[in-house]
């Protein structure tokens, strides 16, 4: 799966470079601030794709002497970097819009930007539907959110271009400011989600319920008497679990070891679960 994610990130990088070149040309030639703001967004997309590609490569490395629990923090870290870049982008768009207000510059009337932005929307929709299939990858989830954001941004930019063509150039400024607000909000949501993973947040209630259900199954089969001190946290993109299980006092050491391995194997089948620490206690 990691190789597929890395390949997709590389394809997205190439596409974003092409989109950036097209939008920066249209924005500069025809003077549309909304399109120019959208081109800045594509520049951030290029940087984002680079970060994601590197993060996926690093995150897929096996554990080593310096990183004994693996490199699973790489992808959330890349996603958090994406969020920081979106805040920088939002600030730049606002700065450009305020500059246009004070300068009073009028953009050129043309329908060429509409064609380019229409193509951008189609490409970004395709990127969104591809990236959203990889929900296990925080980096690609961030790219999916970014692609969705780009569709909205380009749609707003189209509104700005239409307004220019129909004699309302000031709407182009308002479109740019709306784009800035949307970019900032998406950046906030990406930052909040991935910072929580980097800080060791507990998985969602549905995942915790699955963990408890698997342990309850061992109780029903009378393989364990009970379990307690269940703890689960995100370590990067992976979930680590620690749990104490109560077994019969005279359980042979070999059977205790087999029971521990059976519990670990079962819990690791749950989505995103990596390390599982099982402590067996006597009744």
Tell me what the structure shows.
With 283 residues, this protein is mainly alpha-helical. The protein folds into 2 domains: 2-198, Alpha-lytic protease prodomain-like (Up-down Bundle); 205-282, Cation efflux protein, cytoplasmic domain (Alpha-Beta Plaits, 2-Layer Sandwich). 69% of the residues lie in helices and 11% in strands. The chain contains 8 helices and 3 strands; from the N terminus they run H-H-H-H-H-H-H-E-E-H-E. The protein has a 3-stranded mixed beta sheet with strand order 1-2-3. A hairpin with a 2-residue loop joins strand 1 and strand 2. Helix 2 runs parallel beside helix 6. The model has no long low-confidence stretch (mean pLDDT 79).
Element layout with pairings:
Layout (H helix, E strand, L loop, with lengths): L1 H29 L2 H27 L14 H30 L8 H20 L6 H28 L4 H29 L6 H16 L5 E10 L2 E10 L5 H15 L5 E10 L1
Helix pairs in contact: 1-2, 1-4, 2-3, 2-5, 2-6, 3-5, 3-6, 4-5, 5-6
